[in-house]
């Protein structure tokens, strides 16, 4: 990136974590083993027409059986941290009641394997796979789901709190609420804007109750965080007042609806007003904001691409790029007068424009908004059309360039005073990319879906070198 100046130090702090991330449903497979029951993603992926090619996570990359090999690979590459998620329906099959020990044992073995290899585990409790029984009882639009999550958080905290220091309550609640309940491109596939706003509030409540439950059972040294897909927003025309107003509308619906209550103990007034035709927010009860506004030890930012918006006539046939498959339903409640655009220029295989400056902007924004709160980049990465060449190697120079560009912006932010403690590449290996099935490859490690054989791509080797040296190798060196 042009903006990274030569004044930026070449190296990252010694304690910087060089990680990779995954999530349970995307990699584990073994969906019927050891007492696990279906989650909303099992149901959704088995519903015809919901995922590309009808792909499901039934086998995924069989990590449940191959975790030792996967941990060994991470260690060989030189990674120092690994972020994974726990499958709720493996631990608590009905979403209620006591824990299934066989389910927890898998995560105990995984964590022990990581620690033996000197890799620091970070556990995400919820990466979109609600036990189906809880959805049958109403899912996230129901308040009780937040209490069920707190019980589940306590069970996992009791089981792993002695050996895992880094905890993340929820991954990207925006996706759970608005892709799951408004646009319907994610499980459970509902298209009800009012339900999606209720879901967002109950996810916030789940975060707060879950954070408190974790703290009540874990050693005080452990850190509790949340991972948000914070949007870097840009007006289509920077000089247009209407486009700037559209940025503020979407900023409330993308960022403020989560950061507001979690970091500041309040929803933006402008959000409550702009959605008042959809809901009166009567599900927001006295005391909820205090419960949500728990002390946090860190904030996780997931970043892929900026979001460009403009004002549009309501009802006009505007492009609606939600980057997650197509739907006639918008994931933005009450924002039918906003249009979404893609930046010109380079795109990844998802069609997402490459612009590392959005990551710098977000880091600096949250450095200002939450002074003193350590930040982690809990996801960043790209899908490319990777294929093994004749000698079986996988060369992915575009991914190396993507990682180099984004890590350069992280380093620039650190030089400018941001407290970024680590980076988790999305993803360790190719996996089930939700509605896109196995069509999109985000891995630094290539997976042959016939043999399930793993092959590090050149980006994995490049990233491993960065991890070992604490500095970014020149992209053209590999
Ligand atoms: C992450 O979601 C997930 O945590 C991970 O499981 C997944 O595999 C990975 O990214 C890759 O997709 O403004 O309407 O265009 C990323 C989800 C993608 C959500 C971009 C917001 C833009 C929404 N984000 N998206 S829109």
Automatic annotation (TrEMBL):
Pfam family membership, one: Glyco_hydro_1
EC assignment: 3.2.1.21
Catalytic activity field: Hydrolysis of terminal, non-reducing beta-D-glucosyl residues with release of beta-D-glucose
Catalytic residues identified in the record: 379 (nucleophile)
UniProt keyword annotation of Hydrolase present: yes
Keyword terms, alphabetized: Carbohydrate metabolism, Cellulose degradation, Glycosidase, Hydrolase, Polysaccharide degradation
Cross-referenced InterPro entries: GH (IPR017853), GH_1_N_CS (IPR033132), Glyco_hydro_1 (IPR001360), Glyco_hydro_1_AS (IPR018120), Glyco_hydro_1_beta-glucosidase (IPR017736)
Stretches the record annotates as Disordered: 314-333
Record flagged with keyword Phosphoprotein: no
Protein family according to the UniProt entry: Belongs to the glycosyl hydrolase 1 family.
Listed name of the protein: Beta-glucosidase
Origin organism lineage: Bacteria, Bacillati, Actinomycetota, Actinomycetes, Kitasatosporales
């Amino acid at each position: 990136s042009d903006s990274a100046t030569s004044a930026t130090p070449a190296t990252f702090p010694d304690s910087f974590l060089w990680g990779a991330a995954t999530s349970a449903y995307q990699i584990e497979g073994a969906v019927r083993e050891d007492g696990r029951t279906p989650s909303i993603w099992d149901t959704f992926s088995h519903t015809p027409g919901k995922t590309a090619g009808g792909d499901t996570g039934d086998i995924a990359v069989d990590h449940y059986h191959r975790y030792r090999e996967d941990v060994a690979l991470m260690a060989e590459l030189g990674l120092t941290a690994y972020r994974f998620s726990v499958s709720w329906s493996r631990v608590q099959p009905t979403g209620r009641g006591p824990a299934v020990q066989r389910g927890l044992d898998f995560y105990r073995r995984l964590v022990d394997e990581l620690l033996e290899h000197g890799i620091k585990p970070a556990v995400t409790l919820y990466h979109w796979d609600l036990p189906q029984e809880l959805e049958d009882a109403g899912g996230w639009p129901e308040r009780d789901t937040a209490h069920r999550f707190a019980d589940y958080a306590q069970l996992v905290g009791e089981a792993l709190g002695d050996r895992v220091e880094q905890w993340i309550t929820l991954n990207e609640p925006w996706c759970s609420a608005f892709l799951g309940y408004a646009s319907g491109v994610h499980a459970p596939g509902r298209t009800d804007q009012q339900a999606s706003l209720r879901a967002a509030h109950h996810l916030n409540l789940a975060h707060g109750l879950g954070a408190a439950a974790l703290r009540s059972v874990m050693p005080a040294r452990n850190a509790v965080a949340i991972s948000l897909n914070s949007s870097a927003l840009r007006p289509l025309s920077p000089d247009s007042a209407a486009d700037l107003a559209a940025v503020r509308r979407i900023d409330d619906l993308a960022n403020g609806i989560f950061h507001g209550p979690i970091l500041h103990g309040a929803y933006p007034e402008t959000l409550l007003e702009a959605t008042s035709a959809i809901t009166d927010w009567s599900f927001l009860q006295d005391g909820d904001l205090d419960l949500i506004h728990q002390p946090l030890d860190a904030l996780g930012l997931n970043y892929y691409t900026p979001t460009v918006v403009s004002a549009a006539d309501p009802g006009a046939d505007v492009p609606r790029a939600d980057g997650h498959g197509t739907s006639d339903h918008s994931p933005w409640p009450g924002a039918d007068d906003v249009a979404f655009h893609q930046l010109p220029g380079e795109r990844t295989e998802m069609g997402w424009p490459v612009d590392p400056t959005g990551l710098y902007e977000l880091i600096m924004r949250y450095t200002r908004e939450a002074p003193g709160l350590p930040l982690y980049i809990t996801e960043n990465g790209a899908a490319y059309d990777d294929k093994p060449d004749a000698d079986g190697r996988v060369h992915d120079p575009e991914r190396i360039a993507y990682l180099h560009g984004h890590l350069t912006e992280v380093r620039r932010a650190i030089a400018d005073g941001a407290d970024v403690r680590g980076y988790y590449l999305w993803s360790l290996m190719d996996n089930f990319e939700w509605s896109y099935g196995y069509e999109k490859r985000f891995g630094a490690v290539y997976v042959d879906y016939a043999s399930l054989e793993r092959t590090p791509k050149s980006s994995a080797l490049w990233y491993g070198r960065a991890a070992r040296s604490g500095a970014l190798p020149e992209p053209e060196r590999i």
